[in-house]
Amino acid sequence: MRFTLIVLTAVSWNLIGSAVFAEAPAQPQTIENVFSQGVLELDAAPAPSLIKGGSEPTVPSNSKQELINALSSPPAVYMPEQKCCSSTCVTQSAACNCESCSCNACTLCDRIPLLSKFPSDRCFDDFIMPVSNPVWAIDPRSLTYVRGIFINQMIDSQTPVLGAGDLQVYALQIGIALNERLSVIAVSDGYNTLQTRGVGNSRGWADLGVGLKYVLIRDVENQFLLSGGLLYETTNGSARVFQGNGDGLWTPYLSVGKQIGSGHLIASAGYHLPGDTAEESQSIYYSVHYDHPVTDKLSAIAELNGIVYTKSGQALPLNIEGGDWINLGSSSVAGNNVVTTAFGANYRLNDCLSVAGVWEFPISNRKDLLDSRTTVTFTLQF
Description:
This protein folds into 2 domains: 81-117, no CATH class; 118-381, Porin (Beta Barrel). The protein has helices at residues 2-21, 31-36, 62-72, 87-92, and strands spanning 145-155, 165-177, 182-188, 191-196, 200-205, 209-219, 224-233, 249-260, 263-274, 282-293, 298-311, 337-348, 353-362, 372-381. By secondary structure, the protein is mainly β. The radius of gyration is 41 Å and the shape is globular. A hairpin with a 3-residue loop joins strand 4 (191-196) and strand 5. The protein has 4 helices and 14 strands. Helix content is 11%, strand content 38%.
């Protein structure tokens, strides 16, 4: 009996305590009440904000914080034009300009600080400079370059006064592109050696020829160029090698370039107007060059050069003239026409270095001083 009373007392006390401390039943809420009170907080920590300037989230580790910062920063934008720069240019040259991938691709020569400040027009890189008539066959592009030239010219044994012999020319040409249209060029200079049976052996400096070139039409899409300019040849050379005569020589000219298929055509024409018409002859010259790729580095070259003498000089009583490198001022050359052709090749050592060589010979009845000629050039283009 006593045990039963104790059990009933414990059960009653438990029921009374539950009734006293029990919470009131939750009242049903409408949707409006829920949104007005805000979103209920969950036990888990909220996701960190990716919006810059938001509240600082509590992050358990530094690695997660770095991930959040990376996600909140602006994504890197890929610039496709940057691929035109080689790693050599990017790391070693401040002159590397890749604003246009097709036209300003960098070369190894951009590392040379002085001339790399005047970069060549890179939109016509597949063209090759004319070789066999290096003084008057003008490349229509605006280029910055240094070009070494060696010429070995054989003189026919039937040549009046001189007889059989040979002429060697060691020259250096320079071009500076001020922009993609205007450039300064030095086309004639160097040192000459002349050996003939008639007058013996002699050596001396050549006249200096400088001028301007301006690209009148520059059509990148169709790979077409038209340039014009003016050259002036001084009288600083040595008379021992038939230089230094007259009072300077002016040459206005035009030059055109066009890609034809995978090949390239360059044609030049100009008029030689001497300051002293008695000392030097007047003439019209023309030059046609065509190059065609054989491999990625090797191109075949074919060229045609001609000169028509329009007025004779009065310096020497001869009926022959000197061609592109020498103006004798002969008295009986008006109307003479000399045409030569040349064949050879150009090899690109790398993006800015190339070597070329051609063999030239006359195809007209007249030879004047050119029985045959070998011309080799080494070009460093910036």
